[in-house]
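Quick start: what a row looks like.
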Amino acid sequence: MELSDLQRIEIKKYRDNGDSLADISRRTEIDYSTLYREVRLPERGYGSAPEYLAYLMNYNSKRAPNRTLARLISDQLREFGWTGAELAKRVGTTTATISRAKNGKTIPKPEVLRRIFVALALPYNDARGMMADNPPKDLTK
């Protein structure tokens, strides 16, 4: 659905008032996906939905090592019956660091990653294979 000029003016008025896209969708009866495509994507700097989808495909392909690590950590925590906070204490790092790794957001620094693997009784070669594109200097030290 293409937005009319009047709809765009109305949406701008609501956005200037700080209304969310969900609120605007309810008030204007314009479906949320149309609002996201026509309002939010340009706000984020994307010219079109295909451009945004291309970005997502590239971004997600780079996150594969993170998801692999997240799966390894989650599986081992479940097996040991530990929480992320317990692992953080054993490793000597913050719960935020463990949380980001467990959720696939980041790969910790090599020395922290090595301690995570030791605490979870995982062989280091798993980490090396998992991060072939961006390997840490040395996980065995």
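That is the whole record. The two ends are 58 Å apart (CA to CA). Residues 64-80 form the longest helix (17 residues).
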